[in-house]
Amino acid sequence: MNFEEFEPVYEAIIADFGFGRAADERARDVAAEFATPFAFERFADWRGATVAIAGAAPTLPDELALARSADVVVAASTAADVLIDAGIDVDCMVTDLDKNPETGAELTARGVPVAAHAHGDNIPAVREWLPEYDAESTLVTTQVAPRGAVENVGGFTDGDRAAFLADHVGAGRLVFPGWSFDDPTVDSMKARKLTWAARLLRWLERRRNERFDVLDGRRKTLDDGSALAVGRWGKGASR
User: Less Cβ around it within 10 Å: N or C end of the chain?
Assistant: First the structure.
């Protein structure tokens, strides 16, 4: 995934939420002050592997077997804590530094890669936490055009961004423990973000010519143009 391909999706997202590109660009530029080039070769063993994209839904404790059976485990946000407490090694954490940034710092200190995301609403957290992360183990990401050592691999929420990262480095099969698009515990803003996460995963599975079990029962709605409301990227292109 490159930004030129992702940009129409990004524009659709910020239009839907009323977010501004300028704030995201400021966050990227702040993050660039702390970012160093990340060696994507560290993800070489993801190529062709079964990668678990672990979400932080309340269902995760009941779906740990799916994570244990995967070759690689990528944890979105607080899913990392659940997995670690269950004795499951986390191979990468994806976070926008909003809930458990200390977990990310601890993981990078142990040499575990963390993809730390900068966006318009988390500039204070970027300034506070990126200096606490081991630079060699930190992939700094943005949702606008990449700059310097700040990368854009696609995605919007921590969970779907983890899936796009896995795709970016050539992962084989993707599985999704701990996902719930109808989580009753989240507020309305998070619910809207989960809707976008589902849309993005549908786009990704079509690009990959793959079917994600987590989307079963949702594809008809997601493929409806009025529901997607994303213009030229909605139907996507398989590859």
Answer: C
